[in-house]
Design a protein that fits this description.
Blueprint lengths: L7 E5 L7 E2 L4 E2 L6 E3 L4 E2 L1 H8 L7 E5 H10 L4 H12 L1 H17 L5 H17 L2 H9 L7 H19 L4 H13 L9 H4 L7 H7 L2 H8 L6 H9 L20 H16 L10 H9 L8 H15 L3 E4 L4 E6 L9 E4 L2 E4 L6 E5 L3
Antiparallel strand pairs: 1-6, 2-5, 3-4, 3-6, 7-8, 7-11, 8-9, 9-10
Helix pairs in contact: 3-6, 4-5, 4-7, 5-8, 6-7, 7-8, 7-13, 8-12, 11-12, 12-13, 14-15
The chain binds fe (ii) ion.
């Protein structure tokens, strides 16, 4: 029988578990060799033996339906799933390099543009080849305390890059915007960790210290940095009504790059899982954005984020609250938190009893 390769999806072999039985055939990494026929129980031992002579023994291919089932219900530990996704997207490597930049920032008075260039190059390349859904998945993963700043810096860099592309900015500007996202919080390396990670309510004095981080970011960036990067770092907590910090400037005085960084910054903070809060589904965060719940942002830019994310999520797979799979068919602009889902023959809007449990990102 002819294998329809277009319908096959690639997965790391570790995503399978002993005892799994699929209703479709399972193939090797390029779909040319049938490894395990449908209905036969899979064991790692059996697979390992079959893959031993394959040129890529780390991946297999399965049909779409099985693929979604594995991704949604996989029994692999969450940390393994996280690590594999991050390795595959290059997120792990870039994160390490950012760790180096942040370490430098914590020990020196200035950092130079050329020290950051290689990381910017890597992120820009990744933006071109990695499906944004996978980037969103990396953004949603829980962050260990000691990695929070690395991850946040990288996520805001990615989001800034996507915003730049959606705004159709020239390629060089998108790069600069990525750099602004990467470095906006670099001044946090000058804030004592006991304050940054304090698991309690901060005192007024401590709060003031935290609020000084945009200025530290600005001062850390040497004279060879593009001014737009420096001012995005300085002004990413300014608000258009003038109630932000550190300079209290208003709409017309805040640069475009600072306004974009503010939107990316808030999106990343909202969808991320932290030790004290669960992550929110992107639909709910976009709904909050739409309702103006995060004040001080440029609403034109917020609408660019919402419009593009809405389009992006169309036709994506979701796991529904009743355990079935669905596909996002429509996201009402005035009710983003309740998308219209097709699940089998049913097509309807979600509600409190039938809702999206999680997005299933393509690998
Ligand atoms: Fe910040």
């Amino acid at each position: 029988m002819q294998v329809i390769k277009a319908k096959l999806k690639k997965l790391p072999v570790e995503y399978l578990w002993d005892g799994l039985v699929l209703t479709d055939d399972l193939y090797n990494h390029d779909g040319n060799v049938l490894l395990i026929p449908s209905g036969e129980e899979i064991t790692q031992k059996k697979l390992g033996r079959l893959l031993k002579f394959d040129s890529d023994s780390k991946h297999i291919m399965v049909y779409e339906e099985s693929y979604y089932k594995i991704l949604a219900k996989g029994k692999i530990p969450h940390e393994v799933h996280q690590k594999m996704t991050e390795d595959e997207t290059g997120y792990t490597e870039i994160k390490k390099d950012i760790g180096y930049v942040l370490h430098k920032a914590s020990t020196e008075e200035k950092i130079q543009s050329e020290e950051v260039e290689p990381v910017i190059h890597d992120i820009s390349q990744r933006l071109e080849v990695v499906d944004p859904t996978v980037i969103f998945e990396c953004i949603n993963f829980p962050r260990p305390m000691d990695e929070y700043l690395q991850r946040h810096s990288l996520n805001v860099a990615f989001l800034n890059g996507l915003m730049g592309e959606w705004l159709k900015l020239p390629k060089e500007d998108v790069r600069t915007l990525v750099m602004a996202g990467l470095l906006h919080d670099v001044g946090k390396t000058k804030i004592p960790v006991e304050i940054l990670d304090a698991p309690r309510k901060l005192t007024d004095e401590e709060f003031q210290i935290i609020r000084s981080h945009p200025l530290y970011s600005y001062e850390l960036l040497g004279t060879d940095f593009d001014e737009r990067v420096k001012f995005a770092a300085r002004h990413h907590h300014e608000k258009i009504d003038g109630s932000g910090y550190p300079d209290g400037i208003e709409e017309g005085e805040i640069s475009l790059f600072a306004k974009i960084t503010a939107v990316s910054d808030i999106y990343d903070a909202m969808v991320s899982k932290r030790c004290y809060k669960e992550e929110k589904l992107p639909f709910d965060v976009l709904e909050n954005f739409y309702n103006g719940e995060y004040d001080g942002l440029d609403m034109d830019l917020v609408m660019v984020l919402i419009k593009n994310m809405r389009e992006h999520f169309l036709d994506k797979k979701v796991l529904m609250s009743n355990g079935n799979f669905g596909t996002i068919k429509y996201i009402p602009p005035n009710d983003i938190a309740h998308p219209v889902i097709q699940s089998g023959k049913i097509i309807k809007q979600t509600d409190e009893r039938w809702f999206c449990e999680k997005l299933i990102s393509t690998y």
